[in-house]
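Sanity check. The docking grid for tetrahydrodeoxyuridine depends on where the pocket ends up, so I'm generating a full predicted complex first rather than guessing from homology. Inputs follow.
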Amino acid sequence: MSDVVDWDLLVARAEAARGNAHAPYSGFSVGSALWVGDGQVFAGCNVENAAFPSAQCAEASAIGVMISAVGAVPIRAVVVATRGDTLTWPCGNCRQKLAEFAAPDALVMAVTETRRSPPRRLTDLLPAAFVDFEAQPR
Ligand code: THU
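Predicted complex below; grid placement will be based on this.
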């Protein structure tokens, strides 16, 4: 059923994107893939720059692909794929970026070439995310 997260597909798409990472400065290639339901997957890689702070994380690239393709739809599952053995979770900035579009129960899985984590809730990785200040009293 297309509404059930296809983790194998999501991992494959994240790893394929990781293969295109532009990471000559850190040597740390990252791929990410987003599941939004109906079998739709959007993937991206990290894109570094000679001006180091201008680097873009893989999750941000994937979000850009999603927004460009279908606009703001709820993200239900995320994979972050790195190389080697050590699992890598989204950086703090990317947790906030994902939270902007995440479904309330969105799951995140970290994978390497040798391991897959159990899925974790984005809300566990980023409790008390900053939310739209327009909705708050000022
Ligand atoms: N990076 C990501 O792509 N995602 C993260 O969540 C953390 C870090 C990238 C940024 C940079 O290109 C490299 O990993 C090293 O920090």
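Relevant for the grid: Residues 23, 26, 28, 30, 46, 48, 55, 57-59, 90-91, 94 surround tetrahydrodeoxyuridine (CB under 6 Å).
Also worth noting: DSSP finds four helices and five strands in the chain.
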